[in-house]
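Batch manifest, entry 17 of 40.
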Amino acid sequence: MENMFPILIAEDNPVSRMLLEKTLIKAGYEVATVTNGREALESFSEKFFPIVLTDWMMPQMDGLQLCRAIRKNVSTGYVFIFILTARDSIDDMVAGLEAGADDYLTKPFKRAELIARLKTATRVLELEKSLKDANEEITILSITDTLTGCYNRTFMDEQLPKEIKRAIRYNHPISLVMVDIDHFKQVNDTYGHQAGDEVLKELVRSINGSIRSDVDWVARYGGEEFLVVFPETDFESAEALCERFCRNISENTIQIMENEIRITASFGVTGFTSSDTLKEVSYEAMISLADKSLYQAKEEGRNRVIGRPIDG
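Output type: structure tokens
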């Protein structure tokens, strides 16, 4: 079924505006109307309109000014703009297209022509949307670990320095956690690599189910090691969260086919509550401190949490 994109009509003549509105509603379109270009531009602050039909001559902001303003200010998606006017010279058409219009209709418009041109606009917008969706999917795939579905090392290397700099700039807390599955090689050797993959997936599902989806995030650091980032979370709170993670992982079994697999994990935590005394904390330094804490947890017997706060 053809997508019926909502349409915004900008027309100061009440008769022309009503005729356009009735024609488009009858054709099945969702329609909103305004009386000038300024009102049309203001409408975009409340709702995005992929199609705009605008008169050329209007008070406050005319059709050409509206075209230029939309092209400059509206970034939500592409807007297909029609100019409707009694002007029909080549110079007028060129002026309209150069201002940013996509198509040109002379008054009085013919219903069949208007609907046909709207269908052309719809095809253009659907193509633009499909390309945008494809690009977004490619972007998501490029930063996602294909096995576990969490972020990958590429995303971590790009995003974590930004998170740390933001925390320091605004004097907000941030914490990092290195997580490693204990004796993971034994899982692979005993149950096979497919079972090992399922264990990795289950670990990520378990952590993701216990963190704030819109703030915290998990990235695969490598192998069976993962990094959990807690923006807006001080060191003590992150350490307490990891104690709960550690306990939950050790107490639950993972059902893989006929096997019930029990695992444990070790955690290395670092972070700071206030950056008042910190001139700068590097991404590498925080990773290194979390990694040292994780190594200590392994050395002390695994299945535990070791933390080292950054003091400044």
